[in-house]
Amino acid sequence: MTLVASGPADSPAASPTAPDGKGAGPLLRAWRERRRISQLELALRADSSARHISFVETGRARPSEEMVLRLAEHLDVPVRERNALLLAAGYAPHYPETPLDDPALDALRDGMERLIGGYEPYPALVVDATYTVVAANRGIAMLLEGVPESLLAPAPNAMRLTLHPEGLAPRIRNLREWRGHLLQQMERQIALHRSAALRELYEEVAAYPVPAGVDEGGPAEPVAYFALPLRIEHEGRVLSFVSSISTFNTPMDVTVAELAIETFLPADPATAKYLQSLVG
């Protein structure tokens, strides 16, 4: 397993939403409209009034720090953006952003390593908000065998590793489907986080050409997959996985809020049997 530090410089906060001198009102209105919630509905959720919400959004009333946090909670605003709302309203950030290699996060790092290590021989990894790999187990290392060192270090990026023509892309048997799934996933995150770094990454990987000769045929034997599989070739055989992404519940730190643990579950008996044989 590997674990690399990922601090503020690696996160989408390199260009956070900055106060524009107009207060938090326009930002709160933008989040409310994005969530397609009326002023009345938000007021009922936040135990306020539609009149007060209107005054806050237009700048006629300055919300308290508690009100900013309450509205952000009911609007499901990401933790990093909650800090931006507080700054725009004239308050100090509420949520710290602790570097991943800080001793304060020792328990978190240890827990993540134990979690993905216990998932072996199946692949599992941890990424930050811009898909920088901060931890990976031996199942991931197996899939990455033969990938050029230029893509692996320093601070490898999961999207580049997967979609780059010299990365895993030529080995993925259903590349167009899987590529479409990953790009849609990034589009949803860009809409939520408004991250310039994530947008730049998206534009880069979306421009990668699809390698010529990619086999997009079906499996040799019909398999009733229960989710879109990643079908990837490894040492002459095709392995099939479905992925699951987990995040931390109610995070109180920006760094922790932006970590995601992705695990790959064998999608058919043949894949499970092969991976278990490697352990044996």
Detailed description of the structure:
- The protein contains 13 helices and 6 strands.
- The chain has 280 residues and is of the alpha+beta class.
- Helix 1 crosses helix 3 (50-58), helix 2 (39-45) packs across helix 3 and helix 10 packs antiparallel against helix 11 (196-206).
- The protein is elongated and about 65 Å long.
- It starts with a strand and ends with a helix.
Question: What coarse outline follows from CA principal-axis ratios?
Answer: elongated
| Structural class determined from secondary elements | alpha+beta
Count the E strands.
Answer: 6
State the end-to-end distance: 19 Å
Beta fraction: 5-15%
Oligomerization status of the protein chains: single chain
Spatial ordering of strands, largest sheet: 1-3-2-6-5-4
What percent of residues adopt helix (DSSP H or I)? 40-55%
Supply the number of helical segments. 13
Summary, kept brief:
The chain is α+β, with helices and mostly antiparallel strands and about 280 residues long.
List the helices and strands and how they pair.
Layout: E1 2-3, H1 25-34, H2 39-45, H3 50-58, H4 65-74, H5 79-88, H6 106-118, E2 124-127, E3 133-136, H7 138-143, H8 149-152, H9 158-163, H10 175-193, H11 196-206, E4 230-234, E5 237-246, H12 254-257, E6 260-266, H13 269-279
Antiparallel strand pairs: 1-3, 2-3, 2-6, 4-5, 5-6
